[in-house]
Design a protein that fits this description.
Distance between the termini: 36 Å
Organism: Planococcus chinensis
Low-confidence stretches: none
Number of domains: 3
Strand content: 15-25%
GO molecular function: ligase activity
Number of strands: 20
InterPro entries: ANL_N_sf (IPR042099), CapK_Type1_Caps_Biosynth (IPR053158)
CATH architecture of the largest domain: 3-Layer(aba) Sandwich
Strand order of the largest sheet: 4-5-3-6-7-8
CATH topology of the largest domain: Rossmann fold
Protein name: Phenylacetate--CoA ligase family protein
CATH class of the largest domain: Alpha Beta
Shape: globular
CATH superfamily of the largest domain: ANL, N-terminal domain
Largest sheet: 6 strands, mixed
Helix content: 25-40%
Keywords: Ligase
Bound molecules: zinc ion
Length: 453
């Protein structure tokens, strides 16, 4: 929601906030679940995932379509592929003839990637894990196709979005910061969804959340694993028997540790299925019934360099095309011949390798993963070149910012407010504007650095 509606929302009573959430939900539902979504969902259902050859052919067609579109509409690719015989790129193997798109090329030139004007696009601001802001323009088709992949995956595991009752653990800010009542949820009736705020999901409030979940009795649960895990621990420690059993629990956006998976599955007596969300429009990667991570070749192509660095081509990136983009993530692709016991011929990814999840810790509110800092910083993405959040004392958070020209002193105050919303009022915040954020070991930039743990 934009600033003024947000002010009205914040000052409304909770029943009115529920209504406003539903109205906003209705607007979003219309743009996310239009006819393209339903057509695509049907197409996904009709396509067999055990037929490897057909999957390959479809993937190649999608690849050719995206390359042709990018070269036709995106000034960056017109320049980047100059002199390359694009007609000769027919197969996934041929794709290697195209140059790799490095992260800094995307960051420096992102405006020349766009294939449509901002007014016609869904705009998404993200901060990547190195702390650099990126503004993605997404077409309506990109968005609806992505939602179809997501819901098709949930459907496979028994949950039908929009038809079944859903409880979502979300990092959106629908709980006003001045609220004192322990009512940390709002209803979006347009999608049969109760939204639970992940900001207050800690040991202190877990009882209130669990009690509410138990009266709501959702058919399935989705959202941030760190928040759901907090409740699961509370349920297990207090030996609470819930009066409902969700069909499944879907986690995303943060890493899911094996410990958390165990806690959640025990608490809710229900299986957890994880899916990845790391870059806007990246190929869809999700867990199958046998617990393996597959990527859907209809959603893109994943390659790995010899050093196991991941290179992605995303078929849902028509607004800001990503072709052979090196994401900075590391990955292990299983050998093609290995077929998963679930019967799917979709390629298997052997665990995304990476460091442990980065997090910072509040004195009174628990841990917050990099996702929260990414959300806080992305509100200022047009005014910053780079940002880093770090912690060396239990009661203080340090922020370093490389400012862009449009940065104003008022933004420092807003960033402070964002931090208070996340970590609370009993912390100190030091926000500094610097010429250059010093790189970490190995010359790498990091969005979040924790020197306390
Ligand atoms: Zn499988």
């Amino acid at each position: 929601m934009r600033e003024l509606p947000m002010k009205i929302y914040d000052n409304s009573p909770i029943y009115l906030q529920n209504l406003l959430t539903t109205i906003e939900g209705y607007r979003k539902t219309k743009s996310r679940y239009g006819h393209i979504y339903f057509e695509f969902l049907r197409a996904l259902g009709n396509r067999s995932d055990s037929d490897k050859a057909a999957g390959r052919t479809h993937q190649q067609e999608e690849m050719q379509k995206l390359i042709a579109y990018a070269v036709d509409r995106s000034p960056f690719y017109q320049e980047f592929y100059k002199g390359i015989d694009l007609e000769s790129i027919r197969t996934v193997e041929d794709l290697k003839k195209l140059p790799v798109l490095e992260m800094d090329m995307l960051q420096k030139n992102i405006a020349s990637f766009y294939t449509l004007p901002e007014s016609a696009a869904v705009v998404s601001y993200i901060l990547d894990h190195s702390g650099m802001p990126l503004k993605f323009l997404i077409t309506k088709e990109d968005m609806q196709r992505h939602m179809a992949f997501l819901d098709f995956f949930k459907n496979r595991h028994g949950a039908t979005n929009l038809e079944m009752k859903r409880a979502s653990f979300s990092s959106n800010r629908f709980i006003p910061k001045r609220q004192r009542k322990k009512v940390y949820w709002r209803d979006n009736h347009s999608a049969k969804q109760r939204l639970y705020s992940s900001y207050y999901c800690n040991e202190k409030n877990a009882g209130a959340y669990v009690e509410n979940l138990d009266t709501y009795k959702p058919d399935f649960i989705d959202g941030l694993p760190s928040a759901i895990c907090e409740l699961a621990k509370y349920i297990n420690q207090n030996k609470i028997i819930l009066s409902f059993q969700p069909i499944a629990i879907f986690t995303t956006e943060e890493k899911l540790t094996p410990e958390c998976r165990k806690e959640i599955e025990a608490a809710f007596d229900s299986p957890v299925h994880h899916h990845f969300a790391f870059t806007e429009g990246a190929p869809f990667i999700a867990e199958c019934a046998k617990g393996k991570m597959h990527y859907n070749p209809g959603s893109g192509i994943i390659e790995a360099t010899e050093d196991k660095e991941m290179i992605i081509t995303g078929f849902n990136t028509y607004g800001t095309p990503l072709i052979r983009y090196k994401t900075g993530e590391r990955i292990d692709l299983a050998i093609e011949e290995e077929r998963c016991a679930c019967g799917s011929a979709h390629p298997v990814l052997r665990q995304l390798q990476g460091r442990e999840e980065d997090f910072l810790q509040s004195q009174s509110r628990g841990k917050f993963t990099a996702l929260y800092m990414s959300m806080a910083g992305s509100s200022f993405s047009s005014a910053i070149r780079k940002i880093q959040f770090s912690q060396t004392e239990p009661d203080a958070i340090d922020v370093m910012i490389e400012a862009a020209e449009s940065y104003t002193a008022a933004m420092t105050e807003s960033i402070q407010e964002e931090l208070v919303y996340i970590f609370g009022e009993d912390m100190k915040y030091h926000i500094r504007i610097v010429e250059e954020i010093p790189p970490n070991k190995k010359n790498k930039f990091r969005l979040v650095i924790n020197n306390v743990n």
